[in-house]
Amino acid sequence: MSDLEQLVDRYLATWNETDPAARRAAIAAVWAEGGSYVDPLMAATGHDALDAMIAGVQARFPGLEMRRAGAVDAHNDRVRFGWELGPAGAPGLVGGIDVATLRDGRLASITGFIDYAPAEAA
Prior knowledge:
There is one protein chain. With 122 residues, the chain is of the alpha+beta class. Helix content is 32%, strand content 44%. It contains 3 helices and 6 strands, in the order H-H-E-E-H-E-E-E-E. A hairpin with a 2-residue loop joins strand 3 and strand 4. The longest helix is centred in the first third of the chain and has 14 residues, at 3-16. It is globular, with a radius of gyration of 13 Å.
């Protein structure tokens, strides 16, 4: 597994971490200071806001897990990967792709695109 695949998998694991202290430590490990996330439904900048955003998604979709869907593609300081959110061991209910920029080996920004979702998830 490449370093970038490991980074993406560690990033996705932050979405599944329900212990607040462990989640905060994981965010600090994969995100650069001032890192930002944006998708059609939400946005956050900085470790505190990223943590709050993830906790909010966990509260809205309890028991679902975030996982990588497919290979990680990268060039220069850009990374693209597919993801899905769903019950463990079952097909994803929500899925899309994220495009990330890197700074010093950590995530500087992510722009998320949602490819499919049930109407109630929007």
